[in-house]
Design goal:
With 664 residues, the chain is α/β, with parallel strands linked by helices. It folds into three domains: 299 residues, Aldolase class I (TIM Barrel, Alpha-Beta Barrel), CATH 3.20.20.70; 53 residues; 230 residues, TIM Barrel (Alpha-Beta Barrel), CATH 3.20.20.70. Helices cover 37% and strands 11% of the residues. It has 22 helices and 20 strands. The strands form seven sheets. Strands 13-14-17-18-20 form a five-stranded parallel β-sheet. A four-stranded parallel β-sheet has the order 5-7-9-10, with helices on both faces. A three-stranded mixed β-sheet has the order 2-11-12, with no helix packed on it. The longest helix has 22 residues.
């Protein structure tokens, strides 16, 4: 209307040569595996096989602060929402700007901005930045969250105080919008982490009772994934403009790196739509339907952040293992900045780094399942070679030390006399406690599914059907005496394959409340995998994709779970009933409720469990290690005098006898 220029000019540098991408930690994997599919398909890419990469606090390479936060989710005590089938009750709309006095009725109360989504394109952000041309009272105050590189780590710490002071000045001048921007990042200036600045300013304003007087907008090159946006919104951001991710997508299109031929406008709309869909899915895990309820709610647990940082920037967030201080965060910021703008002339491989964060790469982050370990275990099994298994155990021990919390623990052998081996429970009895992971027929082949069942039946352990049902004919004994029957029958929210015969033919009935690789989400089987036999087993239609809803349609409270447990015991009195939970803060209280609901068995799954198909956000950032969840569950059950009522089990990347011993 005023003729303002809202466009922007794309630089001539190529994706692989852009120093800003390197300075903000972009990797080739993130660009090709996440940004490309989001821009092309308008939805987040699917991953599989779980997460065997190291936790952010144990990573060898500097990580962004977002990766230290784990998403919380609803299980048992309240239901998640189905973001697909219940989309009508979900909204990303949010009013931003001064709220005024809630006790007074006046026209000024309505004078706020309505944003249809917290995600802003560069043009939309430019329009918001120049809103004072249309509404003079809507002044915008931009806070530069960069600082001179020459000031070093102390400059990073001083910048935090300066950012808070400038936000307070904006309030005193009655500015309506505060923009936190890292646009000034260059060879001479380093950016403070956008989430650190956002959380700090948000809590500074809350502590001084100023937060409702202003909108907080973030213009950042750092955020690019769904999880990054969720953390920013969860810690107080009203709107976000991920300008560098948008520029990266447009450069990829210019260089022919996106498989679909789309216009720049379509690519950016697709990227924004995929972010919106991802935010809705994360909100739905907690049973939250509107962005206004999610904004500033801090529904995360910090895994590896020190109390000094949490108290100032993320007040009230649970952090159990401590870790990153302001000084260490600053060191990571300088390490990333050096990759994009090196202060010395060094010989390096051109292009974006292959960090190996998602898939194993030589020279990248370590993975629990590396090629050496896989080769050794395959040789040990095929040739019954003890030395290969010893090599596998040693290799896994080293990798687990690099990647997991249990790798930091060791056994205390002091003042303890060894017990003669003939007094130890024999291995033939120990293996009866072993069970396979819940892998459905469909996520793996019939050959794999039935072979696991035969093997566990021979050992005396138990195999798990997963949520895809099981063919009744597998209960028949084979000519050689083996049986392909799975002892554990799982009941998930989709109820695929669940019949009276299915329930009656079980030694254990497992109610799947959540899955380690994607807690708060339902199982997913693409349509091209649903063959005739799979469809018959699941009582569905061939070729039609199957997605279990996140909530069980009949479980909205612990009382509802108790009713289902009772019904299952009536359907099969000789079977024990198990409830599958996922590790998170507070899982101990939930497990206590499950024990009181008369469950016989509780399974605590870790965040790193496998999956046939899940969004990368769920695989990488939801749930916690089983070490924390198992310890909390055991201690809470003991405190409530409930430990003797239930059997407690755990799963999640258990690799060797040492892992089993630590779990016990």
């Amino acid at each position: 209307e005023k003729g303002a220029d809202l466009g922007f000019t794309l630089s001539e540098t190529r994706v692989q040569e852009d120093p800003r991408l390197k300075a903000f930690g972009y990797s080739l994997e993130q660009v090709s595996l996440l940004l490309g599919p989001m821009a092309a398909d308008s939805k987040e890419a699917l991953g599989s096989m779980g997460n065997d990469a190291p936790l952010a606090c144990l990573a060898q390479q500097p990580r962004l602060l977002y990766e230290y936060f784990r998403q919380l989710f609803a299980q048992v005590t309240n239901p998640p929402i189905d973001p697909i089938r219940e989309a009508v009750v979900m909204s990303l709309e949010a009013y931003v700007g001064p709220q005024g006095n809630l006790l007074e009725m006046s026209p000024s109360q309505c004078h706020r901005l309505l944003l249809p989504s917290p995600m802003l394109s560069i043009e939309e952000f430019n329009a918001l930045n120049q809103i004072s041309q249309l509404h003079r009272e809507w002044n915008v105050h931009t806070v530069d969250i960069t600082f001179p590189k020459k000031e070093g780590i102390q400059g990073y710490l001083d910048a935090l105080d300066r950012i808070c002071d400038q936000a307070a000045e904006a309030i005193e001048k009655n500015d309506r919008i505060i923009v936190l921007s890292d646009r000034a990042t260059s060879a001479d200036r380093v950016a403070v982490s956008a989430i650190l600045a956002t959380g700090m300013v948000h809590h500074h304003l809350v502590r001084n009772k100023w937060r409702s007087q202003v909108a907080l907008v973030v213009e950042t090159a750092e955020a690019r994934e769904v999880h990054h946006m969720c953390v920013l919104v969860g810690y107080g951001a009203d709107a976000i403009c991920p300008y560098l991710a948008i520029e990266c997508i447009m450069k990829m299109a210019r260089e022919g790196l996106i498989r679909k031929k789309l216009t720049p406008e379509q690519l950016i709309d697709n990227y924004k739509h995929s972010l919106d869909g991802g935010i809705l899915k994360v909100m739905s895990k907690m049973g939250i339907s509107t962005l206004q309820s999610y904004k500033g709610a801090q529904i995360f647990e910090a895994l590896g952040i020190d109390d000094s940082v949490v108290d100032r920037c993320f007040t009230g967030t649970a952090t159990r293992i401590k870790g990153m201080t302001f000084e260490l965060i600053a060191q990571d910021a300088f390490a990333l900045h050096e990759k994009g703008y090196p202060s010395r002339n060094i010989l390096e491989i051109p292009g974006l780094a292959e960090t190996g964060e998602y898939h194993w790469r030589d020279g990248g982050e370590p993975h629990v399942n590396d090629p050496t370990s896989i080769a050794n275990i395959q040789d040990a099994v095929r040739t019954k070679n003890d030395k290969s298994y010893e090599a596998y155990s040693r290799s896994e021990y080293e990798q687990i030390k690099n990647c997991t919390l249990r790798g930091l623990l060791d056994f205390d052998f002091e003042d303890r006399a060894p017990v003669p081996i003939d007094q130890v429970e024999p291995w033939t009895e120990i293996v009866r406690r072993f069970v396979t992971g819940a892998m459905s027929y469909g996520s793996i082949s019939m050959e794999s599914h039935s072979t696991l069942a035969v093997a566990m039946n021979r050992l005396g352990g138990k195999s798990n059907t997963g949520e895809g049902g099981e063919d009744p004919e597998r209960s028949l004994r084979m000519d050689n005496g083996d049986t392909m029957r799975s002892a554990i029958k799982q009941i998930a929210s989709g109820r695929f394959g669940v019949t009276s015969a299915y329930l009656a033919d079980a030694d254990e009935l497992q109610i799947k409340m959540a899955q380690g690789a994607k807690p708060g989400e339902g199982g997913e089987l693409p349509g091209h995998k649903v063959s005739g036999p799979i469809a018959r087993t699941r009582h569905s239609t061939p070729g039609v994709g199957l997605i279990s809803p996140p909530p069980h349609h009949d479980i909205y409270s612990i009382e509802d779970l108790k009713q289902l447990i009772y019904d299952l015991k009536c359907s099969n009195p000789r079977s024990r009933v198990s409830v599958k939970l996922v590790s998170e803060t507070g899982v101990g209280i939930v497990a206590s409720g499950v024990a009181k609901a008369r469950a016989d068995h509780i399974l605590i799954s870790g965040h790193d469990g496998g999956t046939g198909a899940s969004r990368w956000t769920g695989i990488k950032y939801a749930g916690l290690p089983w070490e924390l969840g198992l310890a909390e569950t055991h201690q809470t059950l003991v405190l409530n005098d409930l430990r003797g009522r239930v059997i407690v089990q755990t799963d999640g990347q258990l690799r060797t006898g040492r892992d089993v011993a630590i779990a016990c």
